[in-house]
Write a structure and sequence with these properties.
By secondary structure, this protein is of the alpha+beta class. It contains 16 helices and 18 strands. The strands form six sheets. It has a five-stranded mixed β-sheet with strand order 6-8-7-3-9. The protein has a four-stranded antiparallel β-sheet with strand order 12-11-10-14.
């Protein structure tokens, strides 16, 4: 007599691809289900799929995968970076090309009439700070008459948070990548409250900038020089193990920097009776290291530029109107799309209706593998940016590993078994997977002068990456036919 056997065996195990609805139904009946987060390549866009295939065909031509090899070069340059704080100096002295009556701003290029309210307000304040005019009306007239030049920070090797305004008299951190000899610059963090980076520009804002210029900067310069410079990669690496991700949380990194510089600050001849003010300002400013992290990102990523055939993103930035990226193979060209609105938590009394679209050069931090890419290392940041649970933060970091060339063992994440932070955003992987970079960010009020109203998460717009992909395909085609 033949024994009947179960058609599917004793245990039914299901792998669900696609809609979670099917998995939820099976789970409700007690069936174990494994979800696979799968998306069709390029969201089934036939034109983009064709472009991806074209690029892959050219990549595989000859004896080497030319794109993969170029991306390995870019990735290795990121790993080899040796950023060090070597000076604190007036921007006009440190930054080649920053001439009198020139202001730098965050993001890709943008004309004065097209700027958002907070950025326009910050520019007017910077003009008064420099003494080029003494009224906002006079400043607007000078701008409209072309008497003051505006250009992106990135054009001159600099970066700036939020509005990102850099003027010749403002002191900047000078960070040198000792492995490659290039330098990057970022202004000093202003602290909390009414600050120019969020579009405030009244007399108290100007007075604080003047104190940074005349009170703090000379002491920091003397301290940095007395210390023989400060190696920054060890500070970042240690701060990651202490719960920082270097974009929204810099508590540990700020403390480590202060501990390094404190003896030299105390002995600085220029400190005078200013010692308590300086130490209190540094101790009260948990985000002080943010601007240094940005300069580290810029110094790390600039050597990855202009590598033929490389699809690695060398910069991401936004000006409050547009989001832009640069890609290694295409040099200084910007690929832009409208800047998106952050999703996050708002301070009491404010809502999403008050928010300005995302802005600032601080996304250079994510470009090198920190910030949102390292969110899994920073449990405390999850609640502040409204990222959900700590498991969600780990998921963001794992997800970013899907769109990057590799990991950075110098930036070990203890919560992920000391894996290196994912770094080297690959345009091909972004478009193919439909996963865009996740960014931790502050949220500015859309009206000038109000300041920060919250913090959250924003995604880079996909259109930047599709434009870049098509440009790279065209460039490869031209090279092949030359």
């Amino acid at each position: 007599m033949r024994q009947n056997k179960p058609l599917l065996g004793e245990d039914l195990k299901v792998v669900n691809v696609g809609l979670s609805l099917f998995a939820d139904t099976l789970r409700s009946s007690g069936t174990p289900v494994t979800d696979v987060d799968w998306r069709p390549p390029a969201e089934s866009d036939q034109r983009l799929t064709k472009t991806l295939r074209s690029i892959q065909k050219r990549n595989a031509s000859g004896h080497l995968n030319i794109i993969d090899e170029a991306n390995r070069t870019a990735h290795q340059r990121m790993l080899d970076a040796q950023p060090a704080l070597v000076d604190v100096a007036p921007a006009g002295e440190a930054i080649a090309g920053l001439e009198d009556r020139t202001l730098l701003h965050a993001g890709p290029p943008i004309e004065w009439p097209d700027m958002c309210g907070p950025m326009q307000a910050a520019i007017l304040g910077a003009i008064r700070y420099e003494g080029w005019t003494h009224t906002d009306t006079g400043a607007v007239t000078a701008l409209e008459n072309g008497e003051i030049t505006l250009q992106p920070n990135h054009n001159l090797g600099a970066v700036g948070p939020m509005t990102g305004i850099t003027s010749p008299s403002m002191p900047v951190f000078v960070v040198e990548n000792r492995a490659f000899g290039n330098r990057a610059y970022c202004t000093i963090n202003e602290g909390i409250g009414k600050v120019m980076r969020f579009g405030a520009n009244d007399d108290t804002v100007i007075q604080r900038l003047e104190w940074l210029q005349n009170g703090l900067a000379p002491v920091l310069r003397e301290a940095v020089q007395s210390a023989g410079g400060v190696e920054l990669r060890p500070i970042v690496a240690r701060a990651l193990t202490m719960g920082d991700e270097m974009h929204q949380r810099n508590v540990a990194a700020t403390s480590l920097l202060l501990r390094t510089l404190a003896p030299h600050i105390a002995n600085a001849s220029s400190i005078g009776n200013n010692v308590s003010d300086i130490l209190k300002f540094l101790a009260d400013n948990d985000q002080f290291f943010l601007n240094l992290a940005m300069a580290i990102g810029k110094a790390t990523m600039d050597p990855t530029r202009d590598i033929p055939n490389s699809t690695v993103v060398t910069a991401m930035s936004r000006n409050g109107t547009e989001f832009g990226i640069r890609v290694s193979a295409t040099g200084d060209r910007w690929f832009t799309a409208p800047s998106l609105m952050p999703q996050g938590l708002y301070f009491p009394g404010f809502t999403a209706d008050d928010a300005n679209p995302d802005m600032g050069d601080s996304t250079i931090i994510e470009t090198m593998g920190l910030g949102g890419f390292a969110m899994g290392a920073a449990p405390a940041v999850v609640g502040f940016v409204g990222a959900g649970t700590f498991q969600d933060a780990l998921a963001y970091t794992r997800e970013m590993g899907e769109i990057t060339v590799g990991r950075n063992p110098n930036l070990a994440l203890p919560t992920l078994d000391f894996q290196g932070a994912p770094c080297g955003i690959d345009v091909r992987k972004v478009v193919e997977s439909s996963i865009t970079p996740v960014i931790n960010t502050g949220i500015a009020h859309r009206e000038p002068g109000v300041g920060q109203v919250g913090a959250g998460i924003v995604r880079a717009p996909m259109a930047c990456f599709t434009q870049a992909l098509e440009a790279i395909d065209q460039l490869l085609s031209e090279t092949a036919n030359a």
